[in-house]
Amino acid sequence: MVQQMRKAGNILIFFISAIFLFGGCAINRGLTSRVTVTLVNYINQGILSIAELEKKSLERYASVTGKNYTTDRRIQDELRDFIIPAYERFADGLKTITPKDPEIQAAHAVYINAADLMLNGFRNKLTGIEQNNDNIIIEANRKIEKARDENEQWRKIIMSLYEKYGITEIDDNQPGIRP
Question: Is the N end or the C end of the chain the one with fewer CB atoms within 10 Å?
Answer without folding.
Answer: C
